[in-house]
């Protein structure tokens, strides 16, 4: 009942906490169940992907944000049935070939991987499309969004702001794909410190001369920008090799060989991409009429449905013992079991 006391004390003091995360859309009523550090909210008569929500009140993430923002904080997080595979964070100096390797992976395994589309304040290059390569944005807008908690991580890189929104990672996982993040070392450090469990790979150039050649041959930067990126590369390579952020270091000398090593460390060597392997979570549809009770880590949702001549009762048992992640954005690891028949199962 610690959480109940905490909530009561906040209400008495008339504290208005900073609310992080995307709020659930309004609905025709809801049931709420109190846990140790969060409140489970079951929306009545909502779509299957919008039924289970958590209001994080005293989770690790909320405590971190409270410290960072200096205010009381609560955070919305959508409950998702099942788990997602760990995202892959790829870092390395500009021009080393991260984007090239990621494109190869996505081309060979289109149904397995999805790209986390970052936000940036830098101007688009000729072939770059808004919403595909980046979400191109104004600095003032991005700064506001950073304050509102939209980003999992952000950093100032080569003079511009770059950031990964919570949504960018979660839409990929919700589609049943494994998310790939192309971010700099500062961003990788932030993700390492966040609640997102990931695999961290650092891509190294064979030499500074070769890195410079690749950057120049790419022809996308001005001379001034090339020099800035090369200066930053020195420090990034040192940090990439010496810090304990990264699980793997990949040397990108010969592209094909490097790509083969990348596939090997992801367990994809010899893997033939055939039919789409979807890890999309199972879904339940909760009817408008239901009552909720809690037994330890199990939530029993009793549904009442009236037929022509009889009223039948069915129940779903929602297991919340293996919740993963928590805020920001999604709480994964929910599982359910149907007790009795359930017409509403999709
Ligand atoms: N192993 C390689 N050998 C030769 N050229 C390469 C190799 N890998 C990538 N390249 C080339 O180097 C250039 C830079 O690659 P890429 O754009 O993928 O780098 P990046 O690490 O994503 O850079 P940034 O961080 O600036 O986005 C491209 O023109 C690409 O074709
Ligand atoms: N911390 C973050 N770094 C990011 C993100 N998106 C990209 N990047 C890194 O920026 C540089 C430059 O990229 P470019 O497209 O301008 O060449 C590169 O190292 C990327 O990895 C992000 O969301 N967060």
UniProtKB/TrEMBL annotation:
EC number(s) recorded for this UniProt protein: 2.7.4.8
Catalytic activity: GMP + ATP = GDP + ADP
Membrane spanning stretches: none
Database matches in Pfam families: Guanylate_kin
Residues covered by the Guanylate kinase-like domain: 85-267
Gene Ontology MF terms: ATP binding; GMP kinase activity
Keywords assigned by UniProt, alphabetized: ATP-binding, Kinase, Nucleotide-binding, Transferase
Family, similarity comment: Belongs to the guanylate kinase family.
Full protein name: guanylate kinase
Organism: Medicago truncatula (Barrel medic)
Phylogenetic placement of the source organism: Eukaryota, Viridiplantae, Streptophyta, Embryophyta, Tracheophyta
């Amino acid at each position: 009942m610690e959480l109940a006391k905490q909530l009561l004390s906040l209400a008495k003091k008339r504290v208005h906490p900073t609310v992080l995360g995307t709020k659930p859309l309004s609905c025709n009523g809801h049931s709420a169940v109190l846990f140790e550090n969060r409140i489970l909210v079951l929306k009545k008569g909502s779509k299957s992907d919008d039924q289970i929500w958590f209001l994080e009140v005293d989770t690790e993430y909320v405590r971190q944000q409270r410290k960072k923002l200096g205010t009381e904080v609560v955070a919305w997080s959508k409950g998702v049935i099942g788990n997602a595979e760990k995202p892959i964070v790829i870092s390395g100096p500009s021009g080393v070939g991260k984007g090239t390797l990621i494109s190869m992976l996505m081309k060979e395994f289109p149904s397995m991987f999805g790209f986390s589309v970052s936000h940036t304040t830098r101007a688009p290059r000729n072939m770059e499309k808004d919403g595909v390569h980046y979400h191109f944005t104004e600095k003032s807008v991005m700064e506001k969004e950073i304050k509102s908690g939209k980003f999992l991580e952000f950093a100032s890189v080569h003079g511009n702001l770059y950031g990964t929104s919570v949504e960018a990672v979660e839409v990929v996982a919700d589609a049943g794909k494994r998310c790939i993040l192309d971010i700099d070392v500062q961003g990788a450090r932030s993700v390492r410190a966040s609640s997102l469990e990931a695999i961290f790979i650092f891509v190294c150039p064979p030499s500074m001369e070769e890195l410079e050649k690749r950057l120049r041959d790419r022809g996308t930067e001005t001379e001034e920008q090339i020099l800035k990126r090369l200066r930053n590369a020195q420090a990034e390579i040192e940090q990439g090799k010496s810090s304990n952020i990264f699980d793997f270091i990949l040397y990108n000398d010969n592209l094909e060989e490097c790509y083969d090593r990348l596939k090997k460390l992801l367990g994809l060597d010899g893997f033939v991409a055939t039919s789409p392997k979807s890890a999309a979570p199972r879904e339940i549809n909760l009817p408008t009429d239901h009552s909720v009770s809690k037994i330890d880590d199990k939530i029993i949702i009793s549904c009442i449905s009236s037929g022509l001549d009889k009223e039948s009762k069915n129940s779903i048992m929602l297991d919340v013992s293996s919740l993963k992640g928590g805020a920001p954005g999604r709480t994964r690891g929910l599982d359910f079991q149907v007790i009795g028949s359930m017409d509403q199962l999709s």
